[in-house]
Amino acid sequence: MDKLLSNFKIKVPEVIFLKDPESSALGQKIISGSIELIDQMGFESFNFKKLGIHIGSNESSIYRYFESKHKLLVYLSSWYWSWLEYRVVIATFSLEGAREKLNRAVEIIADEVKEDSNFTYVNEVALNRIIVNESSKSFLTKAVDQENKAGNFQSYKSLIQRLVTLIQETSPDYPYAKSLSSTLVEASLHQHFLGDHFKSITDCQSKGPADFLADLVKKTLS
């Protein structure tokens, strides 16, 4: 396990940032402060001037790390997907059966998020709320193809590819492993959103979508 964890880091594609925010105290304050503000006011109302005031830094200093608030949102989304994959790797490492690993991975992706003490400058609970409410804004843009080609969404695709592998190991003849994997990830976000805002059109209000998605996987691959 130690060797596995040493080879798996919370890694965000370098193309997203100008300077790695994990490399300095200010960079980490930018990440923690942006999570706090976006969670409080929403991405539309958020800007670097407000972030600078919030963390007690010049706005110009933030631009040394990120060229725009869009790139900062892409960073936060990428960090979250990489962290979620990290959790899947840890939780499934000691499991033997392919279906057991898949079920555990789906549970982690869909379940309620709790703070991870291994990353003290990131509030994963608040970040999860941002991902549920705001993450689609990181790729629903005119520049999505260009940014995808540049590698901005590697963390998101890596998590989905890990699910693809687990589905293929569980049911080698199932022809839609990629579609099912991406559907599971997006359905988890959507059902959490509905549970928070449109409760009358979801059955996943109190416990979240973990049971629903587990049932979907079971019946789809049976």
Produce a short descriptive summary.
The protein is mainly alpha-helical.
Order of helices and strands: HHHHHHHHHHH
Structural class by helix and strand composition? mainly alpha
Main β sheet profile: none
Distance between the termini: 32 Å
Q: Rough shape?
A: globular
Q: Mean pLDDT, as a whole number?
A: 94
- What top-tier CATH class of the domain at 2-6 and 76-221 fits best? Mainly Alpha
CATH architecture type of the domain at 2-6 and 76-221? Orthogonal Bundle
Radius of gyration (Å): 18 Å
Question: What does this molecule look like?
Answer:
By secondary structure, the chain is an all-alpha fold. The chain has a domain at 2-6 and 76-221: Tetracycline Repressor, domain 2. Helices cover 63% and strands 0% of the residues. The protein has eleven helices and no strands. The protein has helices spanning 2-7, 25-41, 48-55, 59-62, 69-92, 98-110, 124-134, 144-150, 154-170, 177-197, 210-221. The longest helix has 24 residues, at 69-92. It is globular and about 55 Å long.
Write the layout of secondary structure elements.
Layout: H1 2-7, H2 25-41, H3 48-55, H4 59-62, H5 69-92, H6 98-110, H7 124-134, H8 144-150, H9 154-170, H10 177-197, H11 210-221
Helix pairs in contact: 2-3, 2-7, 5-6, 5-7, 5-9, 6-9, 6-11, 9-10
Please give a handful of descriptors for the protein shown.
222 residues, mainly alpha, Tetracycline Repressor, domain 2, 0% strand
